[in-house]
UniProtKB/TrEMBL annotation:
Keyword Chloroplast assigned: no
Name the UniProt record assigns to this protein: Glycosyl hydrolase
Organism: Arcobacter ellisii
Superkingdom assignment: Bacteria
Keywords: Glycosidase, Hydrolase, Signal
The keyword Glycoprotein is assigned to this record: no
Signal peptide: 1-21
């Protein structure tokens, strides 16, 4: 009887403790924490106090992603005209923020480099070419890339790709030369060099695309991608090595569906993949960022509320909206939806707090 009473007392204290902890956060506090979990794309070569992105950063936005060209008009500059202009833009962005702002870009090399030699930046060969030329070449190549990013005020590179070149007909990774090779040892060797050179220049690397996109037959930019029959567990090997060797500070999820790993959801929205597999089984304790949530593999199948709720509950810490479409998603839309879901207990406040702690820990490094 006495033991049962003690258990009841402990349970009641725990409930009240949690309620008290939640009540200690104001609406503004929670909205700021949600804002920190967002990375947004925007249009503009410079920033003034009248711009929406200025207001977003003041509201606590976690990061931005930059692009060279506007995809809706290839003749129009989106964010990057040349090196001097980019330095000015990144300085403006960083000066607005009360915390360290993540300023990210896709700079892999080859077909995926937003900073182009024609605009005064170094040219970086594609990953498959780098791997053919050996380690010395790779170190110099990625050192040059890292210095370019650092000098330009960019502190986050959505690279390297650690997908294995398994499917030779894969049009999004393999045929574009974005993978270092078919064997995990090659991918580990060259992605490690890439990560180390970025780290020397205090640029955060992002491993992508978890749990592996190199065996896929389709492109998640365009729609649903099912890798159930093509994916194999060896695609996890680069992640295992890089996590165990403290080289994985940030990982990007892929919008790929694998029935063997989750019968209902693609990786970006899957608790089983992002928490059970990546965090619990592989031991990843860094920041998990989504791939662009406006890509059709997600946006054609889920509305904004479903996407945000499932992604956050799955274990995603940072939500990427590249705003490459004609109609951009605003920070207010995201924050309002997530805040409402916190109030209705569809998303726990504890999940938001944990994500913020991981982001703070990353920034502190």
């Amino acid at each position: 009887m006495q033991k049962s009473f003690l258990v009841l007392v402990v349970l009641i204290c725990s409930i009240f403790s949690n309620l008290f902890a939640n009540e200690s956060y104001s609406k503004k506090d929670i909205e700021k924490m949600i804002s920190k979990m967002v990375i947004l794309g925007f249009n503009g070569e410079n920033v003034s106090s009248k711009d929406e992105i200025y207001k977003n950063i003041k509201a606590g936005l976690g990061g931005v992603i930059l692009f060279d060209k506007d995809p809706n008009d290839k003749n129009k500059v989106k964010n990057v005209r040349n090196k001097e202009q980019l330095k000015t833009l990144t300085s403006q962005l960083q000066a607005i923020s009360n915390q360290k702002l993540l300023i990210g870009i896709d700079q892999e090399g080859g077909i995926v480099q937003r900073l182009k030699s024609s605009d005064g930046f170094v040219n970086t060969p594609k990953a498959s070419e780098v791997a053919l030329k050996g380690e010395t070449f790779a170190k110099q190549t990625y050192k040059n890339l890292a210095v370019d990013l650092s000098e330009s005020g960019i502190n986050l590179d959505f690279a390297p790709v650690v997908d294995l070149a398994i499917n030779k007909n894969n049009k999004v990774i393999v045929t574009r030369g974005r993978s270092f090779g078919e064997s995990s040892s090659e991918v580990i060797k060259y992605s490690s060099i890439f990560i180390d050179e970025l780290k020397k220049e205090q640029v955060i690397s992002v491993l992508k695309h978890f749990p592996g996109h190199g065996s896929s037959l389709a492109d998640s930019h365009l729609g649903f991608v099912d890798i159930t029959k093509t994916w194999s567990e060896k695609e996890l090997e680069p992640y295992k090595y890089l996590i165990n060797n403290k080289k994985a500070n940030m990982i990007m999820t892929a919008h790929v569906f694998n029935e063997k790993l989750d019968k209902n959801y693609p990786a970006t929205l899957s608790y089983n993949i992002n928490t059970n597999l990546l965090r619990n089984k592989l031991g990843f304790d860094g920041v998990l960022v989504s791939d662009d949530l406006q890509m059709y593999a997600i946006s054609k199948h889920y509305d904004l509320k479903q996407t945000l709720t499932l992604a956050i509950n799955s274990g995603v810490d940072m939500l990427l909206f590249a705003n490459q479409l004609a109609k951009p998603i605003t920070l207010k839309q995201i924050v309002d939806v997530v805040y409402a879901q916190v109030l209705s207990e569809q998303i726990s406040l504890e999940t938001i707090i944990k994500a913020n702690k991981r982001i703070d820990s990353l920034l502190a490094k």
